[in-house]
Design a protein that fits this description.
heterodimer, A: mainly beta, nine-stranded mixed beta sheet, four-stranded antiparallel beta sheet, 46% strand, B: mainly beta, 22-stranded antiparallel β-barrel, five-stranded mixed beta sheet, 8 helices, 46 strands, 54% strand
Chain lengths: 274, 750
């Protein structure tokens, strides 16, 4: 019996030793996507800003030494290529991102290709068309109502009023917040190629702030048209919009770069915060 | 006619059969331990001729109750035996008047050491899916405490999965923790497992016996769809006071029992409290914010006429973090009060009756970790009546029950569409179970449970069928089978997107539309090869309908929505036991495949298919457990090695910041965007395998007025880095305990 016990004990020990080796664990199954690209090429802006970040291996990129990539914009009609300048931005929580900028305007109704390339030569790219120019919206205030209208071509993708507001509490003025109130759901598109809406905002501001006691430090009407580079997400649920494969026009990457014509008219000039 | 009405009609037809029984001569009674009044389960009872020839025999059931029917007029030797107890013998005279002789027996423990057949004799399961657990087996799984714990032993069973050494969540044969029923002297306790995974509210000191059903349980257990753990607590000693106290770096506990009225009533008190939070800083060089405690008091009263009553009161509290570096916390508490009375009488037409009344309250809270606070409360009161009758040799058990529940929850921070809610509802029902001997070897056990939810849900009818083929006399083998429908009206909603949760919200199914429904099919074989050497093999197949799950979201975020899945679980559990003199060895192996299918609105866009088939995060393919125990002199040693193959998890494939263009032009200079985890199709990755080796060595010292047990041991002896779960946000693996050596002391009265 003792011999049998000894043999059993040795076998158990050998077995335990053989299984006690560490198993490798690779939690990340790295995607083939190279860059995440978000931004617009605005035919009315004299500077173009585009977020170009490598698809990361961390939830929040907190490495300020992340090397910039080369981002170039090609005007397809002429073949003219420009390299965009890089700027490192820091947001709260010490997260860092690279935004790229071009101190120039883009032409209307033209094809542009933006290419982002890393040090290994891996690329993400997007080709898009810019829209026609958009007239500044006509804003009329009558009987306490603010009416906004104007002609447009391409697709109307944004009709909104942007506010800078400060909630008032017992402790005084709180921090200023930006609230954008979409007007799209009650904007009328006319048969002659125009749009029209009456500004609605106070309920949305109250819902957002949770109080009807606030001051507006600035407000403006924003209207944006775009080519089909702007994704049509009207029929999608929120969860579907977040699907990287669904809302993206970037090859080998994630995100959206759209060609837009963006106009803004000030309703309430900037007031200093209280 | 609805199914429910048909069931009620069937029961009403069968119940009057109790009158038929009275026509045969029978002997019946309850077999108990003389010192404690606890019932003895599986005790052998026989009627013999005066010359010693066995005429008829049976074994006691879960209530220690037996009945031998159809005895001819005459004088007989009545004999009861039970391993570890002195055999009881008496003579009885049966007069042919068509009634029952009441023969309650109080057996005295034997002074002899338990023999090597103890284990198989006292733990022999009578049904498919059943494991009978006795206190002496609980200690075979090393526990870092002076007293072993039932949960450590349960976790070593094939088919039982604990996701880690903290959290207190057990998955049985593909079912979720909320589908397990745990009864304490007949009263439900919602969360009996403590946040430190080695411990539950059931230390070995207070457990008299436990029946663990991994599936295929009878109609008496209604309302849960996966497993049942029916724990019977010890009674306090009726004659002698006793006590024990123990301490280890993890836990301290105290146990006291005392007679109140000699031989008639007793009181038992037990309390436990964790120490790991206080000791971990020094002891493990890492603060482990885990705290729990529990208190139990039980009063027991018994008389010589076979009537017993008990009342218990228990309170538990758990609080802690599963990821020590996060500020996410979990808290829960139970308060349980229950009374149970049972008995048998010579004059009664009923062979056995039992009354249970209980109240169980469970409060659960989670918060922090960026996920907001969530709370859930449930209060359940129940009244159960059970009866046993015989029609010739057919045993019929039936009963009625009524439950009243009040639930309230606020889980908007996790399940965004489920409004905070409070509601109450009443459930009433009845059950019928039977045992029909067919020939010498076969026993059929058809049964039925019927429930009415007073218009809140549709009434349900749950037919269940079990059988046993007992060839013990022929070639020492038993075969069991079971098939049945199991419906769970209450869902316990937990966000099981990863293993790092210990929060469950109890509620009626939203919109009352879907009810969790499973069907079980089991087939098992128990074989005794030779004295002290046996094995069992059991195959099972389960179907699952409408189990609640979290919606798959391509963006890793705290809030989610509720969806449903159907599924199947199939597998095989095998166990081999060997005991020879002072050596004990057991090997358990479980193979299981759990597969869910879910359809969610966004799947067409995401995958191009409406439905997705996947293995949920508790699908463990292989599980192996080896236990060795050896006693010599005052020493005893126990080894336990457990292996589990890696669990499915959802792999991230990258990270970016996301702008929703529906909200306007991306302001890349002003906003960071929404951090997004680009996820693979859920649960396609596999975590590393889990394995752990625990060891303990114990020595008993005889002191003048007490016994001292000193135990040294180690959890995770070879310091395996076992992953508990992987946090995609912090990209950190949360590991289970490293090697933890410990010393535990226990002092107990002689």
């Amino acid at each position: 019996m003792n011999k049998a016990l000894s043999v059993l004990f040795v076998w158990v020990c050998l077995f335990l030793v053989s299984v006690s080796c560490e198993q490798t664990f690779q939690p990340l199954d790295k995607t083939d996507d190279v860059f995440s690209i978000y931004g617009v090429l605005d035919v009315h802006s004299d500077t173009q800003w585009v977020r170009v970040m490598p698809v990361g291996e961390t939830y929040l990129p907190q490495d300020a030494s992340l090397p910039p990539s080369e981002v170039r914009l090609i005007r397809e009609a002429t073949g003219e290529t420009v390299i965009l300048n890089d700027s490192l931005f820091r947001f709260s929580g010490d997260t860092y991102v690279w935004n790229y900028w071009l101190p120039d305007s883009v032409q209307k109704n033209e094809l542009y290709t933006l290419i982002a390339e890393n040090e290994e030569g891996e690329q993400s790219r997007v080709t898009l068309e810019t829209p026609s120019y958009l007239e500044p919206p006509e804003v009329v205030t009558r009987s306490g109502e603010t009416r906004v209208s104007g002609p447009f071509q391409d697709s109307l993708v944004v009709a909104a009023v942007n506010y800078l507001v400060q909630p008032i509490t017992d402790m005084g003025c709180s921090q200023e917040v930006k609230i954008s109130v979409s007007q799209m759901d009650h904007t009328l598109l006319t048969s002659d190629g125009g749009y029209f809406f009456i500004v609605r905002g106070s309920n949305a501001i109250r819902d957002e702030l949770g109080t009807s006691n606030y001051v507006i430090n600035r407000s403006s009407v924003e209207v944006v048209t775009a080519t089909d580079s702007w994704p049509d997400a009207t029929s999608l649920e929120e969860i579907e919009v977040a699907l990287p494969e669904v809302i993206s026009n970037i090859e080998n990457g994630t995100g959206v770069l759209a060609g837009v014509a963006r106009r803004e008219v000030i309703l309430t000039p900037r007031q200093p915060p209280c | 006619m609805s199914e429910l009405k048909k069931g009620i009609l069937l029961l009403l037809i069968l119940l009057p059969l109790k009158e038929v029984y009275a026509q045969n001569n029978a002997v019946r009674g309850i077999i108990t331990d003389r010192e404690t009044g606890e019932v003895l389960i599986s005790a052998t009872v026989s009627i013999q001729t005066l010359s010693g020839e066995i005429i008829k025999g049976t074994v006691t059931d879960n209530n220690g109750h037996y009945q031998i029917n159809n005895i001819d007029r005459g004088d007989y030797v009545f004999k009861t035996s039970y391993v570890g107890y002195q055999t009881y013998t008496d003579t009885i005279r049966v007069i042919n008047y068509g009634g029952a002789i009441l023969k309650n027996v109080k057996m005295s423990p034997s002074s002899e050491e338990l023999g090597e057949v103890t284990v198989s004799d006292r733990t022999r399961a009578e049904n498919a899916g059943q494991t009978r657990i006795q206190p002496e087996t609980i200690g075979r799984a090393p526990t870092p405490a002076g007293s072993a714990d039932l949960v450590s032993y349960i976790q070593s069973q094939p088919g039982v999965l604990a996701t880690g050494d903290r959290g207190g969540q057990l998955f049985v044969r593909g079912g979720t923790p909320a589908e397990n029923m745990v009864l304490m002297d007949g009263t439900l306790i919602y969360q009996p497992f403590h946040i430190v995974g080695f411990f539950s509210v059931f230390p070995e000191d207070i457990v008299s016996s436990a029946d663990f059903y991994a599936g295929g349980f009878g109609p008496k257990y209604s309302g849960r769809s996966s497993s049942v753990m029916d724990v019977r607590l010890k009674n306090g000693n009726l004659y002698e006071p006793g006590w024990s106290a123990s301490v280890s770096p993890f836990i301290s506990d105290l146990f006291v029992e005392t007679p109140v009225k000699q031989g008639k009533s007793s009181l038992l008190f037990s309390m436990r409290g964790s120490l790991i939070e206080e000791t971990s800083d020094v002891y493990l060089q890492e603060q482990q914010p885990l705290k729990f405690n529990s208190q139990l008091m039980k009063f027991n009263s018994t008389n010589n006429e076979g009537l017993g009553c008990s009342a218990l009161l228990m309170r538990t509290y758990d609080r802690g973090k599963l990821n020590f570096d996060s500020d996410q916390y979990f808290k829960w508490s139970n308060v349980v009060a229950g009374t149970r009375c049972f008995g048998t009488a010579q004059e009664s037409s009923l062979s056995f009756m039992e009354l249970n009344f209980g109240v169980s309250h469970f409060r659960n809270e989670a918060g922090g970790g960026g996920g907001g606070r969530r709370t859930s409360n449930i209060l359940k009161s129940n009244l159960d009546l059970s009866f046993v009758n015989y029609v010739s040799d057919i045993k019929i058990e039936y009963g009625f029950f009524a439950n009243y529940r009040t639930v309230n929850f606020d889980i908007l921070n996790r399940f965004a569409s489920l409004d905070a809610n409070e509601e109450s509802f009443l459930t009433t029902g009845l059950y019928l179970d039977s045992e029909i001997p067919v020939g010498k070897y076969l026993s059929l056990k058809p049964g039925l449970a019927a429930n009415s939810y007073m218009s809140r849900l549709n009434g349900t009818l749950e037919p269940r069928f079990r059988f046993s083929l007992d060839f013990t006399d022929v070639f020492n083998a038993k075969f069991h089978g079971a098939a049945g429908i199991y419906i769970q009206p209450m869902i316990g909603l937990a966000d099981l997107r990863d293993a790092g949760t210990a929060f469950t919200a109890w509620m009626l199914p939203p919109n009352y539309k879907t009810t969790l429904r499973t069907t079980h099919y089991l087939l098992g074989w128990n074989q005794t090869v030779t004295t002290g050497f046996d094995f069992s093999v059991e195959g099972y197949y389960k179907t699952i309908e409408d189990t609640p799950i979290s919606v798959w979201n391509p963006v890793a975020q705290f809030t989610t929505e509720l969806a449903y899945a159907d599924g199947t679980v199939r597998g095989i559990d095998a166990r081999l036991n060997f005991s020879h003199k002072t050596l004990y060895a057991a090997v358990g192996y479980g193979y299981s495949i759990t597969q869910y299918v879910t359809s969610q609105d966004h799947f067409m866009l995401w995958f191009g298919k409406e439905a997705q088939r996947y293995n949920p995060p508790h699908d463990r393919r292989h599980q192996l457990n080896i236990q060795l125990g050896y006693d010599w002199g005052d020493f005893s040693a126990n080894l336990n090695w457990i292996y589990g193959s890696g669990l499915p998890y959802t792999q991230p494939k990258g990270f970016d910041s996301f702008f929703n263009l529906d909200e306007g032009v991306p302001e890349v200079n002003e906003e960071y965007g929404t951090p997004r985890v680009l996820l693979e199709k859920p649960f396609q990755g596999n975590m590393p395998d889990f394995h752990r080796f625990d060891i303990s060595l114990q020595r008993k010292f005889q002191l003048p007025s007490a016994n001292l047990n000193v135990q040294v041991g180690a959890i995770n002896m070879y310091d395996q880095r076992n992953l508990f779960y992987y946090d995609v946000f912090s990209q950190r693996g949360i590991n289970q305990l490293p090697i933890v050596p410990y010393v535990a002391l226990k002092v107990e009265s002689k």
